[in-house]
């Protein structure tokens, strides 16, 4: 079985930054990128709030650049998805893609988070046939058509604003009478003439036929049930941390986020560190994920050299 000093799981800003720092600290890191190399940022449009890019940068370009930086500095980036973990003793043992086993003296978990769904049967039925959790991936298919976005946070506003440039009409389905999003993102949707916010509404059912989604049945707080006609239905109601594989080994909070010790990235198991969205229910920004990736590499370096 291959043995490495520092194993990093996750190809997002946290993982790549950890790889950059761990390489420069001569830890010879190996990083498995998972199912979505580049992470969630590859599914977003322009990023205007990552410092250093005066005119903004596309998520894909930012991640490609971070990735190449890690490779240039000597990190060993590999395709592969971790399917099993044994953190009972050091070195830790992980299984990649069901068959390859690898052990590591220190482990950095940077597996990120995944979009949440409403949990409706009809949502499951029409996944990939009009139901999507990524407007920037799938919005293109709804050019000049009507779509709905569920949620009232920054993601929902970003997605609605993106879709408003492609689609004829965008409904935002918001369960309260306020948006959770930041004022700047709220303004974007308020200013878009083809975005209509349906306040105090929840989705009872997604309607469709053999060709896919045709509409949604909504329930307003006052009890009124009504249908809207849409071809695309986009979820933007938050994320679930990708920690399931480690939940039996590490302390997690009630929502599954890995618990870290104070201001460090140390988890409840010595030698295991967590960085990025998998341990951050609060900030969840590319820049904070990158920063915690840096911290995890520094924590791992201290651990390995102590
Ligand atoms: P949030 O948790 O911030 O918002 C989720 C939204 O979905 C809320 O409006 C919530 O409603 C709603 N919601 C949750 N569950 C349901 C449900 N079952 N049915 C209907 N609506 C539901 O998640 P986001 O993904 O929007 O944002 C996550 C983090 O990422 C935030 O910190 C955000 O600021 C950040 N972000 C920043 C961006 C930027 O700066 N460019 C872009 C995207 C995200 P309610 O308000 O009632 O709870």
Topology of this protein?
Layout: E1 2-9, H1 13-24, E2 30-32, E3 46-47, E4 57-58, H2 59-72, E5 76-78, E6 82-86, E7 92-96, E8 100-109, E9 113-115, H3 121-125, E10 131-132, H4 135-138, E11 146-150, H5 154-164, E12 169-173, H6 183-191, E13 195-198, E14 201-209, E15 212-220, E16 225-229, E17 232-235, E18 239-241, E19 272-274, H7 286-304
Parallel strand pairs: 1-2, 1-8, 2-5, 8-19, 10-17, 11-12, 11-17, 12-13
Antiparallel strand pairs: 3-4, 6-7, 7-8, 9-18, 14-15, 15-16
Account of the 3D structure:
The chain is an alpha/beta fold. It has 2 domains: 2-114 and 239-305, FAD/NAD(P)-binding domain; 117-235, FAD/NAD(P)-binding domain, CATH 3.50.50.60. Helices cover 24% and strands 29% of the residues. It contains 7 helices and 19 strands. It has helices at residues 13-24, 59-72, 121-125, 135-138, 154-164, 183-191, 286-304, and strands at 2-9, 30-32, 46-47, 57-58, 76-78, 82-86, 92-96, 100-109, 113-115, 131-132, 146-150, 169-173, 195-198, 201-209, 212-220, 225-229, 232-235, 239-241, 272-274. Helix 1 runs parallel beside helix 7 and helix 5 runs parallel beside helix 6 (183-191). The chain is elongated. The chain starts with a strand and ends with a helix. The mean pLDDT is 95.
